[in-house]
Amino acid sequence: MEETGSILLVDDEPGLRTAVRAYLEDHGWRVTEAANAREGWQHLERSRPDLIVSDIMMPQVNGLEFLQQIRGDERFAAIPTVFLTARGMTGDRIVGYQTGVDAYLAKPFDPDELVAIVRNLLARRRVTPEQPAIDDLASRLSEIKHLLEQNTGKPKSGLVVTPPPIQLEFTPREQSVLTLVVEGLMNKEIAKRLGTTIRNVEKYVSRLFSKTGTNSRTELVRYALQHGLVDPDRLET
User: What are the contacts of 95-99 at 24+ separation with CB within 8 A?
Assistant: First the structure.
C-alpha cells in the first residue's frame, strides 16, 4: 500500500539521509532533507511537513534544541516527531519525552520499523484532529516534568521518579524486558540480551501493554518513567 504525506528528515550524515529518504519514498512519502537543525527550520518555514524525523547528535543546534524550538512555535507544535538516537542515550531520551518527542529509534535500526512508526503516527494524526491550543500541549508536558521531579532523590541517571499510583506485578522476565525497552532496545536486541526469541519478547511487550494500559512503546516508556516502574540505577547511560 502506497502512503501519502510529507516528511522532513534532519540528519548530518549524508549517507544515512540518502538511505532513509530512498526507503521512505519507496513507500510513497514525499521526503525533504536537511543537513542540520537550522536548515531544517528553514524548510519548516517554507513548507509545513506532516512528520519530522530528526537525529539528536548534530553540531551547533542538536535535536533536543530543535524539538524545543518546534514545540514552542504554535505553527509547528503538533507535528509528530521521531528521534534517531545512539544506543544507551537514556538521559537524552528522558529529556526528549519531557519535551514532547513522539517516538525513538536507536541506531542502527531496521528501516521497516521506521516505516511502521511513521505510518502509525500519521494514521493517529488523521484520526485525532490537531489541537490548536498550545496551552494544552504545554500543560501536558509540564505535568510529565512535574511527575518526574516531585521526588527529592536524584538517582544516578538524573531521573527523578515518583511512587506508582497503583501496584503492578511483573514477572522477573517482564521487568527485565521493561527495563530494556526503556533503555531504547528493540525486540531483536532484547531477545539477544536475554537469550530468548523475538517472538517471546513480543509476547512480553504485549503483556506489558496490557498491564499498563498503554498501546505503544513510547507510551509504555513514558508510563514507566512517570510511575517509577524501572530502577534508574539499572539503566545504561
Answer: 95/64, 96/56, 96/63, 96/64, 96/67, 97/144, 97/218, 97/221, 97/222, 97/225, 98/141, 98/144, 98/145, 98/148, 99/64, 99/67, 99/68, 99/71, 99/141
